[in-house]
Design goal:
Radius of gyration of chain B: 13 Å
Largest sheet of chain B: 7 strands, mixed
Order of helices and strands of chain B: EEEEEEEEEEE
Radius of gyration of chain A: 13 Å
Shape of chain B: globular
Number of strands of chain B: 11
Strand content of chain B: over 45%
Largest sheet of chain A: 6 strands, mixed
Largest interface: A-B, 24 and 25 residues
Number of strands of chain A: 11
Helix content of chain B: under 10%
Order of helices and strands of chain A: EEEEEEEEEEE
Structural class of chain B: mainly beta
Strand content of chain A: over 45%
Structural class of chain A: mainly beta
Distance between the termini of chain A: 41 Å
Shape of chain A: globular
Oligomer: heterodimer
């Protein structure tokens, strides 16, 4: 069975600082990996995904993530945080077998001016 | 392309009542999943429908049910509402080719 662990339920950074949100996954098969963002009282919006190929994936709003098979990680980064990045971020894994996406518990990102 | 549409956005119901939520997926997507989101439990998978058949089911009591119509629109129903059913209910339309799910805005259900 797949699982996702997001380290840190709350991360706080200064505006302009590096954003690093951690995600480790467990999957018995090569996974599909996703990052989603959720603003208050909204649905989840896809930031980026990894399926195959290049392990460094670029997404929307300047975010990127790197798939590291040896570390079973898919950490999300952004070089310079903006106030508008304050939201909840979810990492998700799929085993490509028509089974539901499995989500981590989420990391709330706060950006301090 | 229109996104995933969920109606209504907000609902207030009384304990013991039942409720029906609706979801229209992205055109051409045949898979619809439902999730319950609460502060304590996070995102929990309810069920998934594909071509009018329930393909996957989460660990929720039988009070939670769903269905999918031939046009891929889906409904979920919760009977005999409990206070603990208060949550944001999210519907997701699945791109079976790429594996990603596209979410609606959600329905905020409050049970009083």
């Amino acid at each position: 069975a797949q699982s996702v662990t997001q380290l840190g339920s709350h991360v706080s950074v200064s505006e302009g600082a590096l954003v690093l949100l951690r995600c480790n996954y467990s999957s018995s098969v090569p996974p599909y990996l996703f990052w989603y963002v959720q603003y208050p009282n909204q649905g989840l919006q896809l930031l980026l995904k990894y399926t195959t190929g290049a392990t460094l994936v670029k997404g929307i709003n300047g975010f990127e993530a790197e798939f590291k098979k040896s570390e079973t990680s898919f950490h999300l980064t952004k070089p310079s945080a903006h106030m508008s990045d304050a939201a909840e971020y979810f990492c998700a894994v799929s085993d490509r077998r028509n089974t539901p996406l499995v989500f981590g518990k989420g990391t709330r990102l706060s950006v301090i001016a | 392309k229109a996104g995933v549409t969920q109606t209504p956005r907000y609902l207030i119901k009384t304990r013991g009542q039942q409720v029906t939520l609706s979801c229209s997926p992205i055109s051409g997507h045949r898979s619809v999943s439902w999730y319950q989101q609460t502060p304590g439990q996070g995102l929990q998978f309810l069920f998934e429908y594909f071509s009018e058949t329930q393909r996957n089911k989460g660990n929720f009591p039988g009070r939670f049910s769903g269905r999918q119509f031939s046009n891929s629109r889906s409904e979920m129903n919760v009977s005999t509402l409990e206070l603990g059913d208060s949550a944001l209910y999210l519907c997701a339309s699945l791109n079976t080719g790429g594996g990603e799910a596209f979410f609606g805005q959600g329905t905020r259900l409050t049970v009083v």
